[in-house]
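To start, an entry.
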Amino acid sequence: MYLPPAAVRELFRQCAEITGVGSRIAFSYFSAGADGRPDVGRFTGLMLWLQKIVGEPWLWSIRPDELSLFLKELGWTTSSELAGMSVKHGVEFYGVATKNNSGDKNESAIT
């Protein structure tokens, strides 16, 4: 949530590139509202302002129903059996993804 959208994509992409098939990544995220900005409920405006004032603005969020496609594009598969991907914990969601085998450079070297 503290990284710009391009940096979040690059982080997941790089992690997929350097990890083996079956590796897992755990993360937290905020749901996005209709305007694409983080949405944490009725106090969203206040929280966005406070986070900006303290120097930690929330820059990235995603709707839970869009997370699987986002991860798939970057080499990951959602592991909903490991965490409540669409269950809110306070104001954030927790996610776990598993590295899939598509595009794994090491896999082609082994076979």
